[in-house]
Amino acid sequence: MTTPAPNVTRQAQTVLARVGIASNPFFAALRSGAMTVADFRRTQEQFFFAVEFFPRPMAALVGRIGDPAQRLDVLRNLVEEHGEFNELRFHKATFQEFLRSIGGDPQTLDRLTLWPCLRAFNSVLTTACVFDELEVGVACMGIIEYAFADCSAVIGSAVVSQGWVPAARLVHYKLHADIDERHAAEFFAVIESRWDDPARRYFIEQGLELGAYIFDRLYRDLHRTVVG
């Protein structure tokens, strides 16, 4: 697709190709069948807490973007996270439906202990989006959205091919495989004009590296917790 932020997007692609999130042990185990549906379900019950939390640092960024026109694209992204104001389509709600499709019970989520890797992931997003340079937070969130499009496609394909979820019942991951590159482009467009300023480019690159690192680390730690 045509991107309004070619420089930031190109750098994000370079970073993700080097980090290789979609081929880390979590996804390798999922594709190969080494991860059982029970272990996968445990990782997804924890990932719910990332899905539920993600709009909050995004909302913090909206308030920090000075240009109203640039603010609108990220605000639109935030509204989509909230199902276009339809509670049944909140991303939290669609993920709960996905959990049901793999035998999970969303009613039990409130009783789960949050794994350290999820608290670390959410805490890093908060710090990046609230306290760090604006470019760091925007780039961090953008590259996670960019990576999640491919990760969602891998997960969706794996759960269908292994017979855990019928293709017709696949929710959440199908949606994110379709829309998250656009969401990433909306983040990247906020900071594209700063790319030619070496001082600001440094913070853009820092945000891209941070987002790729913590997202890859999250999946590695989820895998390590359930598989070892």
Note down, in words, how this protein is organized.
By secondary structure, the protein is mainly alpha-helical. It has one domain: Heme Oxygenase, Chain A (Up-down Bundle). Helix content is 73%, strand content 0%. It contains ten helices and no strands. The protein has helices at 6-19, 25-32, 37-53, 55-64, 68-81, 91-101, 116-131, 134-161, 173-191, 198-226. α7 packs antiparallel against α10 (198-226). The longest helix is centred in the last third of the chain and has 29 residues, at 198-226. The chain is globular. 39% of the residues are buried.
Write the layout of secondary structure elements.
Blueprint: H1 6-19, H2 25-32, H3 37-53, H4 55-64, H5 68-81, H6 91-101, H7 116-131, H8 134-161, H9 173-191, H10 198-226
CATH-defined fold name: Heme Oxygenase, Chain A
Task: Look at the helices and sheets and give the structural class.
Answer: mainly alpha
What series of H and E elements makes up the topology?
A: HHHHHHHHHH
Helix content: over 70%
Name given to the CATH homologous superfamily: Heme oxygenase-like
DSSP strand count: 0
β-strand percent reads under 5%
Q: What are the low-pLDDT stretches, counting only 5+ consecutive residues below 50?
A: none
Number of domains: 1
Q: What would the principal axes of the Cα set say about the shape?
A: globular
Assigned CATH class: Mainly Alpha
How many distinct helices? 10
Main sheet makeup = none
CATH architecture: Up-down Bundle
Distance between the termini: 39 Å
Cα-atom radius of gyration: 17 Å
The overall pLDDT average reads 91
